[in-house]
Amino acid sequence: MSASAKRLAVDGGAPVRTTPWPTYDKGDALLNADDQAAIARALGSRRLFRYDTRRYEETETGQLELELARAFDVPYALACSSGTAAIALGLMGAGLRPGDRVACPAFTFSATPSAILLAGGVPVLVDVDDDLHFDLADLERKLTPELKAVVVVHMRGFASQIDRIAEFCRAKRLILVEDAVPSCGASLGGKHLGTFGDAGAFSTQSDKSINTGEGGFVLFHDEQHLARAAVLAGAYEGRIHHHVAHTAFDPLSLPLFNFRLDEIRAALARTQLARLDDKVRRHHAVYNEVAQRLAALGNIRVRQQVAPNDGFLGECVNFWVEGADMATTQWLVCALRAEGIEARQLGDPGDINIRCFWHWRFLWPQERAEVTMTRAPNAARHLATAIDVPLAACLTAADRDDLIDAVGKVCAAHKRTMGVAA
């Protein structure tokens, strides 16, 4: 490489790429004519509310729920308005009571503890391991008689050790809800994420595997769990019988939160559900190549799955540059962005990233961030230097080359400043 080619874009050199890095918010989504036709079909019906004079199986939303249950091999599915609503419905449908303590990981989107609050629970923070996975040992330390439920998050598309956590929850009689919002379509050991616990919550928001702009769904194994969630979601005035023939409770004893999904989004979700396996294959192919090439650079530690080549979606890559502290990681990310790569330091102190638990001020309003960080020290330490790069399923070979070239270029410059031969 020539001296001019080695010069970083952040220092005035030529960037590796000048075209925008593909992400959902720039319109880089796998949408096609089938999606447009699905929306037109729903509009053509002139009935956009899921509960009308049609039978359950004749509505777009009813058909979506039946198709979701088949696709994920579970008895019941309920479509809803968001992933946050899905988590809350999963907890409430499984019997969470107001004031119950609910464990959740320190590395998750702030919607997870928000959903626990929405369900009437009190979030209890659980630390993560060195690869940012839910730490079962810390959950055991946090176990008290007041702890009634666990929300496990398959964060950034990576499965937690959900089989072991599910076994623990069964033994301790804890409600288990999987926040599979970031991992729709991923599986572990041949079993879909979101199907290990009492309920599995998913989102169909714009950057998810199924993209309807907004929306979500919940998977259930128990009919009465589904029934309670359906009433809470808005199956009012007898409409619960669209879902189940009988309820073991009085539907009027539950409030209505009106978390329903509409017919247009349901139609769009149906056509994308049919293509979900293909999209997951695309994500896997992109991720596997990128992760292997990053690891081959020599001074990169890529986040590891809980099982070899299993339990991941691949919609982003997380990695650490060896020896880089928080300030150095800030510089590395700034340099990568200048090279045209949309990288982010998860724990950048100048970036209010609400995936970092110390920014959840609604839980600890009077507490300074540095104090909050001591609640989950391992998460705080590893998030501080973790680099995150989104990997769209439509990423081309040229895009992948640019990513590796940019990381290699920036890391080589970092080595030179550290006095290490590149």
From the 3D structure, determine the CATH topology of the largest domain: Aspartate Aminotransferase, domain 2
Looking at CATH, the homologous superfamily of the largest domain is Type I PLP-dependent aspartate aminotransferase-like (Major domain)
Distance between the termini: 11 Å
* DSSP summary, beta strand count: 13
Q: What is the count of distinct domains?
A: 2
Query: Tell me about the biggest sheet?
Result: 7 strands, mixed
CATH class category of the largest domain: Alpha Beta
How does CATH name the architecture of the largest domain? 3-Layer(aba) Sandwich
How much helix is in the residues?
A: 25-40%
Specify the number of helices.
14
Contiguous uncertain segments of 5+ residues? none
pLDDT averaged residue by residue? 96
Structural class: alpha/beta
Please state how the strands of the largest beta sheet are arranged side by side: 1-9-8-5-4-2-3
Coarse shape:
globular
Radius of gyration, rounded?
22 Å
H/E element sequence: HHHEHEHEHEHEEEEEHHHEEHEHHEH
How big a fraction of the residues is strand?
5-15%
Structural notes for this entry:
The chain is α/β, with parallel strands linked by helices and 422 residues long. The chain has two domains: 3-29 and 276-417, Aspartate Aminotransferase, domain 1, CATH 3.90.1150.10; 33-272, Type I PLP-dependent aspartate aminotransferase-like (Major domain) (Aspartate Aminotransferase, domain 2), CATH 3.40.640. Helix content is 37%, strand content 13%. It has 14 helices and 13 strands. The protein has helices spanning 3-6, 33-45, 60-72, 83-93, 111-118, 136-142, 162-172, 223-233, 263-273, 276-295, 326-338, 369-372, 377-384, 397-417; strands at residues 76-80, 101-105, 122-126, 147-153, 175-179, 187-188, 191-192, 199-203, 216-220, 300-302, 316-321, 344-345, 387-390. A hairpin with a 2-residue loop joins strand 6 (187-188) and strand 7 (191-192). Helix 4 (83-93) packs across helix 5 and helix 10 runs parallel beside helix 14 (397-417). The chain is globular, with a radius of gyration of 22 Å. The mean pLDDT is 96.
